[in-house]
Amino acid sequence: MEVYTQELPMRTSRRVELIDITSMVTGVLESSGIRNGILNVFSRHSTSAIFINENESRLLSDIESMLEGAVPVDASYGHNIIDNNADSHLRAVLLGGSQTVPVINGSMDLGTWQSIFFAEFDGPRNRRIRVSVAGKP
Ligand code: ZN
Questions:
Q1: C-alpha span between 131 and 29 (Å, rounded)
Q2: Measured in angstroms, how far is the CA atom of residue 72 from the centroid of ligand 1?
Q3: Model-level pTM greater than 0.90?
Q4: Ligand 1 centroid vs 42 CA: distance in angstroms?
């Protein structure tokens, strides 16, 4: 088994932003030379998340609305006493910080309507995403 890892730097531009990173992750997989195994995408930040879903603009707006409903920006949070971004952390908890995708014959085994997203909840910031691939060439 071989292991390949690469960091993807990213500059986000808004406080809340859902960014399709599928093509960037595909590039890492191609660089890895691994054809069968698993691929992990990991956000190295506690106010961002990684999720997999359909890249459809109205759905992405619906996801932002769902998160605003579940975790309103202006509710009363304990963490805001020391750092004014509790909503960002809580949204990150809801979506999770990583995703793992099977790699089959050189490609990620994503469904037709699945894309990999980086979710920014406390931007704009410089972010780092770690992509790791493990398997056989
Ligand atoms: Zn904080």
A1: 9
A2: 15
A3: yes
A4: 19
Residues 6+ apart with CB under 8 A from 2: 32, 33, 34, 134, 135, 136, 137
Question: Could you tell me the distance, in angstroms and rounded to a whole number, from the CA of residue 74 to the centre of ligand 1?
Answer: 14
First and final C-alpha spacing in the chain? 8
pLDDT digits (tens, 9 = 90+) for 15-70: 999 999 999 999 999 999 999 999 999 999 999 999 999 999 999 999 999 999 99
Using the mean position of ligand 1's atoms as its centre, give its distance from the Cα of residue 85 in Å: 5
Q: What span, in angstroms and rounded, lies between the C-alpha atoms of 89 and 97?
A: 11
- 14 Cα to the center of ligand 1, angstroms: 17
How many CB atoms within 10 Å of residue 85? Answer: 19
Q: Report the separation in Å between the CA atom of 30 and the middle of ligand 1, taken as the mean of its atom positions.
A: 35
Dihedrals φ, ψ of 130, to 5°?
A: -105, 120
95: its two tokens? 């979506």
**Architecture in CATH for domain 2-136:** Sandwich (2.60)
| Residue closest to 101 by CA, chosen among 127, 62, 134, 124 | 134
